[in-house]
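Design job #97: recover the sequence.
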């Protein structure tokens, strides 16, 4: 039986290490060398497991049943209305107050020749859990390859028609957690469109807008600081970026979604996914009140989350991708964080 504090580590031949704990499958560290072989932990978080268990439970964790926001916590399936918990302004976020990030997942070694090392995480969410319909059986494989790819493979099945959107909520700082902000990180997104947010609604409106001419244009790459320090109204709403980007050419196959590079250390990461969106969040709620890695305060814009996903509030938006899972179907989602050494 896995305990909340149990820690597991994946290692490959190139000194890349990924560590996570039983609670929430929470990624507590990813160690990556730079071109000179200097190793840094590139995931924002805490120095110890005890601190991670006492701190922000979203850091590096698996989020569900529905990651991101559902407006007013309401959705309808087959004529039946469902009311979820409200835990983020007027909306439901990441499964509510008892999301998958707080559950202790059952963890066991997983053998697959494509991985240098892998673990399988399992969870059964009962019918009615978080006020969602259907018993949901979830499996997540964390695998690390010798090509420096950290692969997250999700699968889930349900006993009743339900909605689902799972993601991983790690915040990355490629210079190293605790070494400052990500303002000098260059971000490139394979996304010429995004879903604007409304201040009163607290999330998306259903609009899909062009990024061209806005601070959200990362098509050719630019620093995160250039966007976060702009006067763009969308940026001002959340004091940075907390937006879903629409991945160009989405067809359900694995595609490059993002590139993130620290211009100081040269460490670089590519993000691949078979999902239609990626939420970019620059951690604007970090206020330096918590102590993180290297004994440094966790400061505003100290890391950036790249959460591959279905769009926020998709169950209520006919023009957004499908988030409904029916009995007999299998939800599948792959996300790859590839470190360029």
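Job complete. Output follows.
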């Amino acid at each position: 039986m896995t305990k909340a504090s149990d820690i597991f580590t994946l290692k490959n031949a190139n000194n890349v290490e990924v560590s996570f704990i039983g609670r929430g499958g929470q990624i507590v560290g990813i160690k990556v060398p730079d071109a000179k072989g200097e190793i840094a932990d590139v995931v924002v978080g805490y120095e110890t497991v005890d601190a991670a268990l006492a701190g922000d439970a979203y850091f590096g964790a698996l989020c569900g049943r529905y990651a991101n926001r559902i407006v007013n916590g309401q959705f309808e399936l087959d004529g039946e209305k469902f009311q979820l918990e409200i835990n983020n302004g007027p909306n439901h976020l990441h499964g509510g107050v008892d999301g998958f990030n707080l559950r202790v997942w059952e963890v066991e070694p997983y053998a697959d020749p494509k991985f240098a090392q892998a673990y399988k995480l399992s969870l059964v969410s009962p019918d009615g859990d978080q006020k969602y319909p259907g018993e949901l059986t979830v499996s997540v494989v964390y695998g690390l390859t010798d090509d420096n790819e950290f692969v997250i493979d999700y699968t889930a099945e349900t006993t009743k028609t339900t909605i689902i959107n799972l993601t991983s909520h790690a915040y990355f700082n490629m210079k190293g957690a605790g070494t400052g902000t990500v303002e000098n990180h260059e971000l490139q997104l394979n996304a010429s469109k995004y879903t604007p947010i409304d201040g009163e609604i607290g999330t998306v409106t259903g609009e899909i807008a062009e990024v061209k001419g806005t601070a959200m244009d990362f098509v050719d790459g630019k620093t995160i600081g250039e966007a976060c320090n702009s006067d763009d109204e969308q940026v001002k709403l959340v004091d940075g970026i907390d937006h879903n980007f629409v991945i160009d050419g989405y067809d359900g196959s694995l595609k490059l979604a993002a590139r993130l590079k620290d211009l100081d250390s040269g460490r670089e990461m590519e993000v691949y996914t078979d999902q239609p969106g990626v939420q970019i969040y620059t951690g604007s709620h970090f206020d330096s009140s918590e102590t993180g890695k290297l004994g440094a305060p966790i400061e505003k814009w100290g890391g950036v989350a790249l959460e591959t996903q279905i769009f926020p509030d998709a169950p209520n938006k006919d023009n957004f991708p499908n988030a409904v899972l029916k009995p007999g179907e299998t939800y599948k989602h792959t996300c790859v964080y590839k470190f360029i050494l």
